[in-house]
Amino acid sequence: MLIRKLLGGLLAMFAFPTLSILMVALAGSAVFVVIASVLRTLGVHIAMNIALLEVPRLLSIPVGLLFGALFFYLARQSWRLLQISYQTVKAAFIIK
What top-level branch of life does the organism fall under (predicted)? Predict the structure, then answer.
């Protein structure tokens, strides 16, 4: 019982801040990437490189949407992990 509460406390202490910051950063990056790709297509000088190769200006919106969708998916998965962690900690502190 004590070990379960200790593990639940450690999970709450490390997983909650990490997952919440990761979720916010990925969601913000998803929005930023899409906006930056549209601005780059319109002529604003924004460097868009993937593994030392520059993305052509015409392909910046599809590439931006692809990475924006990837970041949004990862943000959603970190939200789900945060919910699972919360349920685990909640179950660890319920007295039976």
Answer: Bacteria
